[in-house]
């Protein structure tokens, strides 16, 4: 029987609904203050409510009227009247509101699973699936939440069998190896069958997102015609109910034969065999454009994807008992690669729900983590904000997030405020702050590129605003600096990958200098499909341009902005130039005088989309008409409205001297409080911005010129000193005298460069007995720094290859070098015994235990030779820390930069014995002491796993 206390008459319901909608419209879109709101107002076209705004409206309706709407009312409602019907249905339904019902008790999903071997020799995704299907055919691969309360399980064997049936259907329709097939399916079993079915048939899947509502299918397909045309798609896999409308695509895309459903494909039987697929074949195309004006399909091979999955698994320290929980869309790289293919490779269970399932009730994500004891899960920043704003405490009574060890946050700008508030809010529900993990990646590298160490928690850098914005220098700010900029650390490059920061001339920048983030590695794409011009722009000197700005500090990447001016809204890329062109076609809008940009909104945790357009229209009615026309263009291109529209007089939009739109400058004007109606204020702000922008540009140009001049000066000084030093050392009969000459030349060289050397801990040098100096290695300048800073002379091992060159052999021999073999095991043992005999003669030794160095900061694994020698001969080991050399001369960079150096000698250590175990213990103590003072990452924290991943990347 209906609860009489829940009855609300229809006029009251309608009035409440209209009041809530009107208030939300005015909050989200200030330019719509005069918008009329009625029950027949369309949620998107008339009121400008996107998916996130719908969730806000839903929360307010349920709060005021005390109901819990059905999910289909949330996702399919077109008008406020549709929502009113949903409210009335919820009020007349029997039983108490669902919001007051207890959630199901938590239970384990992946308890006591065996640590089965992984397909580490797999070369393709097909090898991975077939390997698991053979080894564990009945083991659940994923649990899928759809409409039913209980999830449906999909085993490895069932996935392979169904995919083979789909492949047989595709081959029967004439699909040839290398043909592209669009997969336009929502999250469901058919998606997995279709994706792997395309691969098994020899085709290349092209995931595209399905329309949010069935009545949008025709408009949606028209919009995606250019994507499918660029990919030259042969077939389109869609839902059966969408097939009729999908046939429209055959008229728009010349290569397309027609749409087909998974159920139709599965009627052809099972595929007897599959075409040979190689590691370097394209596995799928990931289209990155948020709309369709310039389709860019990232080509990702099987080798790219497996390298990325293996590297991410190593960085996250994935174990068999992990459980992945995801709501991320499968047409997006984070959901497809990061969640699905990652869990497939490592054989960890995947608990999956659709994005709509999550958006309708964000608490479902959190309850799924508890119920299945999820350990790895995450999403874009807006997902965490959604939970903060739209998950009331009453819906999570008894929630336990204690199992959640990796809560990654990526795919759009990560806001430190969101991390802090999420940690504080859900600490009461068992969430550990250490689980939060800002990450960095992009489709051009699969998905992941940089991860911080698991279990550390967010590391936020507070930076002085003026030096960063004016000169690109990330100088730490005082803790109480209210104007400081805050950027979260996104970690270090994945194993086998590299990141560097370069200026506009493609010269590598130093520590804490902002520039273009570039990358390379085994996951990196070879380019964009059938788009040679975009591919050409992607590569520069062997590196790929991420399009992002950032800096590196202590080995970690900090992302500060985007060069491409892409706006990321709710995990989706929006390219401003397309909307700017469309708005410019509107009569009375000045063509080429429109700026579209994103502005971060701390309240929602995502970016607001703003349009600044010039017009000569002054009449209020005409301005309202222009705003409506601009919103219509935005809905047609982006499937979402603009958050704000600013109509300004002519010559208001900032431009470069060549006439290009300055979107960053437009954003700055807007965020300074540009008043839409005070038009003269816009001119004043534009003038101020131009004047203030001139000085930073001059400073940047001056700094680059000074860097070039300094590099040339350093090269000339080095050339002037090198020959006399070599002659002097070559003619010196004793190593001690040669070191004196080297020390004098090194100090003169650094003095002429203005590089100050700070020396600490000289009192720790053992002066009365033989000893071993263990020095970190970060640059070719390390030896020079040691020679300039420390007294005395040392013997040191050098690779035997250097002895083949007479110039290096003579020079290093006079300094006391002992040439050793690195590759011949027998010769290497003989050399080790010879070094031990030399150590027994009371001669001090200098070792670089890392053996090499890299451009990225961090302490590499140590070789054992020097520690074995110290243990066997009972020699004290003095750790020595050299700082500053990497910034002055980074690996792969030949032009010296300004900088200062420091050399710190630590108290000596003695081995507890003379055996191997004592040498290992000595190595570990030395390493711990160096890490404590160095302030750089420990790149050997996962020695075994990371080494295996790096080795495979090299293969």
Structural account:
The chain is α/β, with parallel strands linked by helices and 955 residues long. The chain is built from 32 helices and 34 strands. Strands 18, 19, 20, 21 and 22 form a 5-stranded antiparallel beta sheet that branches. A 5-stranded mixed beta sheet has the order 28-34-33-29-32, with helices on both faces. The longest helix has 52 residues.
What is the share of helical residues? 25-40%
Could you say what the CATH topology of the largest domain is called? Glycerol-3-phosphate (1)-acyltransferase
User: Spans with pLDDT under 50 lasting ≥5 residues?
Assistant: 1-8, 95-112, 675-680, 942-955
Specify Rg, calculated over alpha carbons.
32 Å
Total strands: 34
Question: What form results from the Cα inertia axes?
Answer: globular
Question: How much of the polypeptide forms β-strand, as a percent range?
Answer: 15-25%
Enumerate how many helices there are, as a single number: 32
According to CATH, what is the class of the largest domain?
Alpha Beta
Biggest sheet record: 5 strands, antiparallel
Please name the CATH architecture of the largest domain.
3-Layer(aba) Sandwich
Structural class comes to alpha/beta
- The overall number of domains is 5
N→C terminal distance: 69 Å
- Overall pLDDT level: 82
């Amino acid at each position: 029987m209906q609860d009489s206390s829940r009855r609300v008459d229809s006029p009251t319901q309608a009035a409440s609904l209209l009041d809530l909608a009107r208030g939300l419209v005015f909050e989200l879109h200030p330019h719509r203050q005069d918008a009329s709101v009625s029950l027949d107002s369309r949620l998107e076209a008339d009121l400008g409510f996107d998916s996130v705004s719908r969730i806000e409206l839903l929360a307010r309706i349920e709060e005021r009227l005390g109901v819990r709407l059905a999910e289909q009312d949330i996702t399919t409602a077109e008008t406020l009247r549709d929502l009113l019907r949903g409210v009335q249905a919820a009020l007349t339904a029997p039983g108490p509101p669902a919001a007051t019902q207890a959630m199901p008790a938590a239970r384990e999903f992946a308890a006591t699973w065996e640590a089965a071997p992984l397909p580490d020799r797999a070369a393709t995704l097909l090898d991975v699936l077939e390997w698991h299907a053979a080894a564990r055919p009945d083991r659940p691969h994923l649990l899928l939440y759809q409409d039913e309360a209980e999830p449906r399980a999909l085993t490895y064997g069932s996935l392979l069998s169904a995919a083979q049936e789909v492949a047989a259907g595709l081959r029967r329709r004439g699909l040839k190896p290398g043909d592209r097939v669009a997969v336009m399916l929502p999250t469901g079993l058919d998606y997995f069958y279709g994706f792997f079915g395309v691969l098994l048939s020899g085709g290349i899947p092209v995931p595209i997102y399905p329309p949010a509502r069935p009545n949008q299918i025709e408009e949606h397909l028209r919009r995606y015609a250019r994507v499918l045309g660029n990919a030259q798609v042969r077939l389109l896999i869609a839902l059966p109910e969408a097939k009729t409308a999908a046939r429209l695509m055959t008229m728009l895309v010349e290569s397309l034969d027609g749409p087909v459903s998974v159920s139709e494909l599965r009627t052809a039987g099972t595929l007897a065999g599959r075409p040979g697929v190689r590691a370097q074949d394209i596995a799928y195309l990931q289209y990155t454009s948020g709309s369709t004006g310039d389709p860019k399909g990232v080509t990702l091979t099987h080798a790219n994807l497996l390298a990325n999955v293996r590297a991410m698994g190593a960085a996250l320290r994935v174990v068999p008992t992990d459980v992945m929980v995801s709501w991320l869309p499968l047409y997006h790289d984070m959901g497809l690669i990061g969640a699905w293919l990652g869990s497939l490779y490592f054989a960890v269970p995947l608990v999956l729900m659709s994005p709509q399932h999550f958006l309708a009730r964000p608490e479902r994500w959190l309850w799924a983590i508890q119920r299945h004891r999820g350990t790895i899960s995450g999403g874009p920043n807006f997902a965490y904000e959604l939970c903060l704003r739209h998950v009331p405490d009453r819906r999570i009574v008894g929630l336990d997030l204690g199992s959640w060890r990796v809560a990654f946050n990526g795919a759009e700008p990560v806001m430190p405020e969101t991390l802090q508030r999420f940690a504080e809010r859900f600490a009461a529900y068992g969430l550990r702050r250490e689980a939060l993990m800002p990450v960095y990646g992009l489709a051009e590298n699969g998905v992941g590129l940089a991860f911080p160490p698991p279990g550390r928690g967010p590391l936020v850098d507070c930076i002085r605003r003026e030096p960063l914005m004016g000169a690109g220098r990330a100088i730490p700010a005082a803790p109480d600096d209210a104007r400081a900029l805050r950027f979260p650390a996104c970690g270090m490059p994945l194993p086998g990958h590299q990141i560097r920061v370069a200026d506009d001339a493609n010269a590598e920048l130093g520590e804490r200098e902002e520039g273009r983030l570039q990358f390379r590695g085994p996951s990196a794409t070879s380019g964009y499909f059938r788009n040679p011009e975009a591919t050409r722009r992607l590569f520069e000197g062997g590196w790929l341009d991420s399009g992002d700005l950032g800096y590196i500090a202590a080995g970690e990447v900090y992302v500060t902005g985007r060069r491409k001016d892409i706006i990321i809204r709710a995990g989706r890329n929006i390219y401003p130039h397309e909307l700017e062109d469309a708005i410019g076609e509107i009569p009375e809008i000045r063509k080429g005088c429109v700026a579209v940009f994103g502005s971060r909104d701390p309240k929602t945790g995502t970016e607001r989309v703003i349009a600044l357009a010039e017009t000569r229209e002054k009449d209020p009615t005409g301005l309202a008409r222009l705003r409506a026309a601009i919103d219509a263009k935005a809905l047609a291109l982006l499937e979402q409205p603009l958050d704000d529209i600013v109509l300004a007089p002519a010559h208001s939009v900032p431009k470069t001297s060549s006439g290009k739109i300055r979107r960053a400058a437009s954003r700055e004007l807007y965020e300074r409080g540009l008043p839409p109606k005070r038009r003269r204020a816009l001119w004043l702000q534009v003038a101020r911005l131009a004047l203030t922008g001139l000085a930073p540009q001059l400073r940047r140009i001056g700094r680059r010129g000074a860097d070039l001049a300094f590099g040339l000066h350093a090269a000339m000084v080095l050339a002037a000193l090198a020959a006399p030093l070599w002659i002097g050392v070559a003619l010196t009969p004793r190593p001690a005298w040669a070191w004196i000459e080297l020390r004098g030349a090194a100090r003169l060289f650094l003095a002429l460069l203005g590089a100050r050397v700070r020396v600490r801990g000289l009192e720790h040098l053992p002066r009365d007995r033989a000893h071993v100096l263990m020095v970190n290695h970060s640059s070719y300048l390390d030896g020079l720094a040691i020679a300039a800073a420390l007294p005395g002379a040392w013997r040191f091992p050098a690779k035997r290859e250097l002895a083949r060159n007479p110039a290096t052999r003579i020079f290093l021999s006079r300094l006391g070098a002992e040439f050793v073999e690195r590759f011949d095991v027998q010769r290497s043992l003989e050399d080790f015994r010879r070094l031990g005999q030399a150590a027994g003669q009371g001669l001090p030794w200098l070792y670089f235990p890392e053996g090499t160095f890299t451009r990225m900061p961090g302490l590499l694994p140590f070789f054992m030779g020097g520690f074995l020698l110290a243990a066997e001969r009972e020699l004290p080991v003095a750790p020595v820390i050299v700082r500053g050399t990497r910034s002055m001369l980074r690996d792969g960079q030949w032009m010296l930069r300004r900088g200062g150096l420091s050399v710190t000698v630590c108290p000596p250590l003695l081995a507890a014995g003379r055996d191997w175990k004592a040498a290992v213990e000595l190595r570990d103590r030395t390493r711990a002491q160096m890490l404590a003072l160095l302030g750089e990452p420990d790149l050997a924290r996962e020695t075994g796993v990371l080494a295996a991943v790096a080795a495979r990347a090299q293969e």
